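I am hoping you can look over what I have pasted underneath with an eye to the fold:
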Amino acid sequence: VTIFDSGADTESYVSFVATDNYAGGQMAARRLGQLLGGKGKVAIIAVVPGSASTTDRERGFQHTIQKEFPGVRVAALQYGMSDRARSLAVSEDILTAHPDLDGIFASNESSAVGAAQALKSRGLSGKVRLVGFDSSPSLVDDLKGGTIDSLVVQNPYRMGYEAVKTIVEYLEQKTPPRRIDSGAVLVTRENMHTPEVQKLLNPPLVGM
């Protein structure tokens, strides 16, 4: 067995191929902390309790904000339950409770979509800085439009490719790496049209 994308509570596997989600959360924290000049109030639109991959992102974000940006306070964390409508609702609740909010970190696609919709509906696009995780056509449109400042984008194509490769190597009596980090990139309006980023946003169907 090779495990990919999200961890499982077992050590009985050949390889684990996934994004370093903690590092992805750190990447988001550093972007948001720098955008805010090291001070302000932010919220986290989290995914679901107990999800290994997204919990790591949220932990990486919180730990890095606390350590590197002591002037930035995490004022709220609510779960969108991996649902766009629920993420929209909790984002609106947070914006109501904290009208002076400066930034939001949304730790997966559905959370980011919900948060972006809430900012647009309240006329807060670009005023409350939003850093999301993952990509989709909707998120890319909001990145272009300025509602989203940046996205931490994974490499799911490489994740799947490397996962199959580890099994092939195992069947060939080789020893594939126990852990493979498939990588992530911070995508902004400035770099979104570069070949490296376009390959992530529009992965090739064949070949690497």
Observations:
- The beta strands are 2-4, 15-18, 40-46, 72-79, 103-106, 129-133, 150-154, 179-181, 184-188.
